[in-house]
Amino acid sequence: VAPSSIWVVPSSGGTTVRVTDAQSLNTSPVWLPSSRGLLFVSDREGNRDIYRVDLTRSALPAGRAIRLTTGLNAHTITLSPDAKELAYSVFTYTGNIWMLVLPARGVGSLAGARQLTDGTQTIEGISLSPDGRWLAFDSDRGGNQDVYKMPADGGEPVPLTHSPEADFVSSWSGDGRALA
Hints:
Elements: E1 7-8, E2 17-18, E3 26-31, E4 37-42, E5 49-54, E6 66-67, E7 74-79, E8 86-90, E9 98-99, E10 114-115, E11 126-128, E12 134-139, E13 146-151, E14 158-159
Antiparallel strand pairs: 1-2, 3-4, 4-5, 5-6, 7-8, 9-10, 11-12, 12-13, 13-14
C-alpha cells in the first residue's frame, strides 16, 4: 500500500535501472511480449490503475508511463502471451478506528469498544496526541491516502493534507503541535 518503485535488472548482471518513480505505489510489473515495455499497477494519479512504460534497449524508460485504465483498483495483473487479454485482481482493504478503554484488571471486551470512523476506507496508521485529546490517522476516505485528525472521543475527521501523493501518519511531536 506504501510507495514503491519498479527496477529492471539484467539477467546477466550489470547496472540496475529504475523504471518508475518512488513517490507512488508501483507494483505487479508484467513484461510486454517484445520485452521492450512493461505494464504495471500504480496509484500515481489517485486509484490503482494499469500503466504502460516503453523501454529503450538499455531498459531506460522511453518517455513517461501512460495510464491505460481508469477506476480498476487493480492489485495484481497478468498478461496473456499474445498480449490480447489481461487478468487482474481487485484490491479491497478497509479499516476503521475503534476506541477501547483498557480495564484495570482482566481482559478488554469488544462490547466496551466504540467505533470512531466508518465507511470503506484504508487506515494504515493512527496516533493519539500526547495530551490524549486528538487522534491523527491516515485514510483514503477522500480517494487518496491523506492525513486527518479528529477528537479522540469521536467527531468529524478534518483533513490535514491533500496531495496527489499518498501521505501517512507516524507520530505526534512531544508537545503535540506537529505530526510526522
